[in-house]
Amino acid sequence: MKRYVAIVLMLVAICMAGLRAEARMAADSAAVPAIVERINASGHISVRMPAALAARLCDEAGMSVGEAVEQEERQPAANARVGYRIQVYDDNDPRTARSEAQNRKRLVETRFPEWRSYIEFNSPYWRVKVGDFRTRSMAEGAIEEIRQAFPYMSAQLRIVRDRINTTD
User: Fold this and answer.
1) What pLDDT score does 138 carry?
2) 55 Cβ contact list (under 8 Å, min separation 6)
3) Which segments of the chain does DSSP mark as H helices, in order?
4) How many angstroms separate the CA atoms of 79 and 28, rounded?
5) What pLDDT sits at residue 37?
6) Nearest one of 155, 107, 160 to 129, comparing CA atoms
7) Please, are residues 85 and 133 in contact by the beta-carbon 8 Å criterion?
8) CA distance 131 to 115
9) pLDDT (tens digit, 9 = 90+) per residue, 12-43?
10) Which residues of the chain have pLDDT under 70?
11) Residue 76, pLDDT score
12) First and final CA of the chain: distance in angstroms?
């Protein structure tokens, strides 16, 4: 008889624990839509992480912490708007793409210091984009200048819509 009472008490305890867990999950699932709405409503999401984690992530991506900070600083500011850039390089060769992107960026910056250039890594592609042009006609004029300065890049030159940085 004592055995049956002990078994019944254990079953009641298990059921109570299950009900509490179910209530907690229901409360958590009610909070999830609020979190998702907040993330989607926000225009800017900031991620804070320890320096050791940032260093490890940079090691995995194959870039230094300084490059990551530099890349973060180049992200569109609050005064960014849609415009045009000239893509001068695009490749996904894991052995050479990064160094070639840096070389192309350096070449274009040297020849055209008035235009900012940007290296973007969107796995697995490395891309180099030049300029912050408000209109397509401005970008078309610039692409012709780049074609004349670097004829061997002609095959990869293209005008792309992008978020540009404005100085209004």
Assistant:
1) 93
2) 65
3) 2-41, 51-61, 65-73, 97-111, 136-149
4) 37
5) 64
6) 160
7) yes
8) 5
9) 777 676 667 666 665 555 555 666 666 555 45
10) 15, 17-19, 21-47, 60-80, 168
11) 47
12) 85
Tokens of 152: 């061997």
Q: Which amino acid is at 26?
A: A
pTM confidence score? 0.53
Q: Helix (H, G, I), strand (E, B), or coil: what is residue 11?
A: helix
Q: Which two tokens stand for residue 134?
A: 């408000």
Rounded distance between C-alpha atoms, residue 157 and residue 145, angstroms: 11
Contact 61, 71 (CB under 8 A): no
Q: Which residues contact 39 (CB under 8 A, 6 or more apart)?
A: 45
User: Residue 118's pLDDT is what?
Assistant: 95
Instruction: Please report the pLDDT score of residue 12 as a whole number.
Output: 72
The pLDDT of residue 68: 58
Q: Report the SS3 class of residue 135.
A: coil
Q: Closest Cα to residue 67, out of 58, 79, 75?
A: 58
Angstrom distance (rounded) from CA 11 to CA 60: 49
Q: How far apart are CA 166 and CA 8, in angstroms?
A: 72
User: Residue 21 corresponds to which tokens in the numbers above?
Assistant: 């867990």
Q: Which amino acid is at 110?
A: T
Phi/psi for 57 (5° steps) reads -65, -40
